Amino acid sequence: MKLSGVLFFPVTPFDAAGELSRDRLAEHVTRGLEHRPGGVFAACGTGEFSALSEAEHAAVVRVAVQAAGGRAPVFAGAGGPYGAALNQARAAREAGADGLLLMPPYLAAGPFQGLAAYVRGIAEVGLPVIVYQRGAISLTPEQVVELARIPNVVGLKDGLGDIDRIRRIVLAVRREIGDGFTFFNGLPTAELTMDAYRGIGVELYSSAAFAFAPEIATAYLSGPAELSARLLTEFYEPLVRLRARVPGYAVSLVKAGVRLTGLDAGSVRPPLVDPAPEHVAELEALIKHGRSLVGA
Questions:
Q1: Which of 8, 32, 67, 236 has a CA-to-CA distance to 221 between 20 and 30 Å?
Q2: Three-state secondary-structure class, residue 42
Q3: Where do the domains of the chain lie?
Q4: CB-CB contact of 7 with 38 (8 Å)
Q5: pTM, full prediction
Q6: Could you report the per-residue pLDDT of 87-142, keeping only the tens digit for each?
Q7: Which has the closest alpha carbon to 214: 6, 2, 4?
Q8: In DSSP terms, which residues pair with 102 in a beta bridge?
Q9: Are 118 and 80 contacting, i.e. CB atoms less than 8 angstroms apart?
Q10: How far apart are CA 11 and CA 168, in angstroms?
Q11: Within the chain, which residues score under 50 in pLDDT?
C-alpha cells in the first residue's frame, strides 16, 4: 500500500456523559477528508487508544471506515496486551480497515524475540501492519529488517527522533528488503522535524495539526517554501512550546483545537487532562494567526 500526503489522526469525540459520540466522530472524519489526507489513522494515540474499551475501539474503526467510504485508506490502532491487540486487529479486519498501526506492548518488557513474536501474531490476522517505534521500543537496523521480513509487516512509524538510528534503519531496509517498505515520522508535531527526516529519505509524517487546522497542515506540505518557513516559525514552533508545558498536551491540545473548530469533541479521558483556559486561548490565537498566513 502506497501512502502519500498528510496522514490524519482523528480524535475520539465523547459526549457530555463521557461516552463515545459516533455522530461527532463521523463528522470529524468527514471534515478531514475534505482536505484529502493520505490516510486516516483511527483509534490511535491522538484518538486516545489507551482509554478505549475493546467495544469502543471496534466502534471507532467502523465509523471511520464508513465515513471514509474508500476515499482514503483507514488504519486502526492496535496494541497493548497481546490478547487485546489480537481482538482489536480482528475487529478492524471485520470493520473493513485497510491496515493496522501496531502500538508497543506496555509494561511487560521482553527480548526482541518476544517482540517479533508479538508482531508476527498480530500480522497473522491478515491486515497490513505498520510497527510504531516509541517509548521502550527502540529497534536496531537488523531488527527492523527482521520485522520487515514478516508477511504483512509493511512499515515503521518512528516516534523516537534518533536521526542517526533511523537513517541506518532506512539504509538497511532499502538494501535488504527494497523500496516497498514504508517509513514515516511519527513525532508529535512532526512538521518541526520534517527537514531532518526528508534529508534521510523519509517523506511521510503524521500531522497532529491536521485534526484541527487542516488548511494549515496542507499549506505547510504543498505551499511555497517561504510560506512553509513562516508556518514553522510562527505556528508550529510556538505550538510545540505550548505542547511541552503539560504532559499529555500532545493529545489534549489537539482535542481542544477540534472543539475550537465548532465540533464538540468532549473532554479527554484520564489520565489526560484538558488544557487550562489560558492555554486554550493561546492555542486559539495560534490557529487564527496560522490561518491568516495561509489565507484561510
A1: 67
A2: strand
A3: 6-221
A4: yes
A5: 0.96
A6: 999 999 999 999 999 998 876 678 999 999 999 999 999 999 999 999 889 999 99
A7: 6
A8: 78, 131
A9: no
A10: 33
A11: none
Residue 288 falls in the annotated catalytic set? no
Question: Torsions phi, psi of 99, nearest 5?
Answer: 180, 180
d(CA 244, CA 47): 19
Rounded to whole angstroms, the Cα distance separating 212 from 131 reads 25
The tens digit of pLDDT for each residue in 195-219 reads 999 999 999 999 999 999 999 999 9
14, 264 Cβ separation under 8 angstroms: no
Helix (H, G, I), strand (E, B) or coil at 44: coil
Q: Return the SS3 of 243.
A: helix
Fold of 6-221: TIM Barrel (3.20.20)
Q: Which residues pair with 8 in a beta bridge?
A: 40, 207
Q: What is the mean pLDDT of the chain?
A: 96
pLDDT given for residue 240 in this prediction: 97
**Residue with grid cell 522535524, as numbered in its chain:** 193
Task: Note the pLDDT of residue 241.
Answer: 97
Residues with Cβ within 8 Å of residue 15, at least 6 apart in sequence: 21, 24, 266
Residue 109 pLDDT: 74
**Pick from 1, 15, 5: nearest CA to 203:** 5
Cα(239)–Cα(280) distance, rounded to whole angstroms? 11
Those residues with Cβ within 8 angstroms of residue 267's Cβ, 6 or more apart along the chain or in another chain: 14, 18, 255, 274
Strand partners, 42: 76
> Of 82, 118, 157, 197, which is the active-site residue?
157
Q: Where are the alpha helices (DSSP H) in 35-162?
A: 54-68, 82-95, 112-123, 141-148
Query: What does the block give as the cell for 257?
Result: 483545537
Eight-state DSSP code of residue 236? I
Q: Which of 82, 106, 132, 205 is catalytic?
A: 132
Q: Is 2 an annotated catalytic residue?
A: no
